[in-house]
Amino acid sequence: MTRTHPFSFLWVQAGSCGGCTASAFEHESGLLAGQQPELKLLAHPALSQESGEEFSRVVEQILEGTLLLDALLVEGAVLLGPNGSGRFQMALGFDRPMSRLISELAGQARHVVAVGSCAAFGGVVAGASGRTEATGLQFRNGQSGGLLSAGWRSGSGLPVINIAGCAPHPGWIAETLLLLADGALSPDELDSFARPRFYADHLAHHGCNRNEYYEYKASAHEPAQQGCLMENLGCRATQAPGDCNRRRWNGTGSCTNAGFACIACTVPGFADGTEPYLETPKVAGIPVGLPVDMPKAWFVALAALSKSATPGRVRKNATESHIVVPPAPRARSQK
User: What is the pLDDT of residues 100-134, one digit of tens each?
Assistant: First the structure.
């Protein structure tokens, strides 16, 4: 696909902590700093040079149809309260609720992208008391229909593209925009929650540096310990879409690599408060949240077999804050 102009996008913030912006700003491509020639950031409420009247003018030009908008990026949950009025968050300088402004901009954009789980599903904001009536753009938690209807489609024919995560990896944001710019993101490249499959077809479990402990069910009892975090500490990496452990944050980091359990932040409803963090709910000693596609009977049989075969080194290291028993050295076999 040959483009005659850079791919233009506008970033707006709804009910947001700003974490998704911070994530995008970390991308080595300079995604929000104008260093990606294929992409053109029209305005960002916190980071672009345009502010106040200049920012408002950019938005008005888009609404008037005199400025092309390839993609509208929304960060944060849309606040529909009180009583569906949207007046809990007014769009500064536009004399109308942010929810209404986002709907109007969505009607002008060729693509609409929800950046982060709040914009995608309501996220943390929707998981609180509910007084804000927070929702995602096209989902509320796991249910279709948010600010926009379930059947809504952008000018490109795609639904809202949900880059879920709290916050999403900066690479997910940049690659989604580049795929859209190349016309290479079709409905087949989106999963059932309209998350790009290039990252959502993986699990956070893939590439985890604790996988040896997982295989032997050698579990940690405290976050600082080396063992698997699933059995006792609430880790949901075996259930969470995302390649976070295959492409590390800043090249090195991830939640589980830092000793913190995966909370499945790419999944709708992860912050609804029904399950505690850092604690694994169990029934009769069996974790409630089993790995995807694994029948309970298989897991129980596998866990019993794995624990009986656990090397002493693995069992000992699992409950330590560092490696205390290294692998035994083995000389090369002589031919």
Answer: 999 999 999 999 999 999 999 999 888 766 789 99
What does the alpha-carbon distance between residue 218 and residue 318 come to, in Å, rounded to a whole number? 6
In a domain, 107, yes or no: yes
Classify strands 286-287 and 282-283 as parallel, antiparallel or unpaired.
Answer: antiparallel
Pair (186, 243) in one structural domain: no
* Domain count within the chain: 2
C-alpha 201/C-alpha 140 separation (Å) is 22
- Residue-wise pLDDT tens digits, 186-199: 999 999 999 999 99
Integer-rounded Cα radius of gyration of the chain: 22
Hey, which residues does 321 pair with through a beta bridge?
none
- Structure-token pair, residue 29: 């491509």
**Dihedral (CA of 193, 63, 41, 70) sign:** positive
User: What is the rounded (10 degree) CA torsion for 103, 107, 113, 115?
Assistant: -20
Residue 286 CA to residue 294 CA, distance in Å, equals 13
Domain end among 200, 227, 248: 200
54-91 burial: b if 16+ Cβ within 10 Å, else e:
ebbebbeebbeeebebbbbbbbbbbbbbeeeebbbbbb
109 and 178 together in one domain:
yes
Residues 141 and 213 in one domain: no
* DSSP H stretches of helix in the chain: 19-25, 53-64, 98-108, 117-121, 123-126, 170-181, 197-200, 211-215, 230-233, 296-308, 312-318
Output the domain CATH number for residue 248. Answer: 4.10.480.10
Residues 189, 307, single domain; the answer is no
Tokens read off for 62? 């888009």
119 and 45 in one domain?
yes
- Domain contains 324: no
Instruction: Give yes or no for a contact between 261 and 234, defined as CB atoms under 8 angstroms apart.
Output: yes
